[in-house]
Amino acid sequence: MITTDIVIVGGGIIGLSVARELNNRHPDLKITLVEKESDLACHASGRNSGVLHAGFYYTPDSLKSRFTAEGNRLLTDYCLRHNLAINRCGKIVVANDEKELETLYELKKRGDINRIGLEIVDEKRLKELEPTAKTFREALYSPTTSIVDPKQVIEHIAQSLQGKVNIFHNERLIERETASTIRTTTRKIKFRHLINCAGPYADKIAHHFGVGQKYTLIPFKGLYLEYKDSAFIRKHIYRVPNLKNPFLGVHFTKMTTGKIKVGPTAVPAFWRENYQGLSNFNLHEFFEIVCCEAKLFFSNTCNFRDLTYEEMRKCFRKYFIQQTSSMVNKIDANCFGNYLPSGIRAQLLDRENMKLVMDFVVEHGENSTHVLNAVSPAFTSAFSFNKFVVDEVEKKTALGTKR
To answer: Could you tell me the keywords of this UniProt record (predicted)?
Structure first.
């Protein structure tokens, strides 16, 4: 039996950032983090693009909007202060027609409300910034969008917590035994407060505590292709997104190494770690998730059927490459290389309304806090979002007092 003040479930960017914030505020607290894998950031946190978003995609009243701009600044400062890899290249968002141009102006409006420095540029200015990019009349330039190496960032945070936070690997949460005790793979842990940052399994853990019963997580697979001409672009190039859709579509990303990747897709996956083939296959998850996806598909709730058709088409290499050609003046199909390691984005589904939840969601139990929906831009937002989570925990328990 281990006794701790706080137990955090999940060793991704959110779990580690919350542990860091808690330790900064309450250095005398005993904090224990359990991670089901043998290493940290094996899933979404380590497989995401590493782009630090500026924060102009999200409605001004959303938690995403609230935390992304500050999170970008805080994580940028962290990388610069600790000499971690960061490419501060900026981003161009392009439009294809008049309708997409209207969306571009809406993004600029959202950015202005959130006090994010953005610039509407004409084709002449665009050519100076990014000669490869192609747009309809105007484009949006975001100078504060950058990119980091997500695994390097997470490893550095974990190292900074050594001697301050107990981090246990290969410890999957099996069950809640009592109101204040959980059983993991090899241990029993007694706690004052549990914080659930388990990513694609956050809903399952929340259900152990009677929280978030109306929610389930639906996985979507993101595939990237390598583009072998590293001099092809200077900046990230994105197309104007469909604002009714939680995904940003296929785009060009300039990595910290200077290499380029193109993607991702957002193909519905059939189990929560459905990265490749039958790896990590889980029969129970398969039936549960396919059932939810079938309901969404046949009802076409939140345009799920249309989204599925479009994303499945991107699995065909020729169509995938076609999608990229509308964003650039010219492209060499022969420069597209191999598929890069895929990622899974777990999107929260509200089963009562059969709608995908667009914003972050945090809910509480009697002595537990559950981060149920921490999807993109959660990596960017982590150092800001963690303050919110810890604020919420502090409201629920007197962290500064001893047992």
So the answer is: FAD, Flavoprotein, Oxidoreductase
* CATH number, span 216-351: 3.30.9
pLDDT at 401: 52
Q: Would you kindly state where each structural domain of the chain is located, as residue ranges?
A: 1-50+57-77+148-214+359-402, 216-351
Q: Could you give the CA distance from residue 86 to residue 153 in angstroms, rounded to a whole number?
A: 10
Whole-angstrom distance, CA of residue 135 vs CA of residue 146? 21
Pairing of strands 86-87, 146-148: antiparallel
Pairing of strands 2-9, 31-34: parallel
- What pTM value is reported for the model? 0.94
**What is the tens place of the pLDDT at every residue in 311-358?**
899 888 899 888 899 999 999 999 999 999 899 999 999 999 888 999
The answer to whether the Cα torsion of 98, 108, 267, 333 is positive or negative is positive
Question: Tens digit of pLDDT for each residue in 170-192?
Answer: 999 999 999 999 999 999 999 99
pLDDT of residue 360: 95
How many angstroms separate the CA atoms of 373 and 72, rounded? 19
User: Which CATH superfamily, name and number, covers 1-50+57-77+148-214+359-402?
Assistant: FAD/NAD(P)-binding domain (3.50.50.60)
For residue 140, what are the β-bridge partners? 93, 120
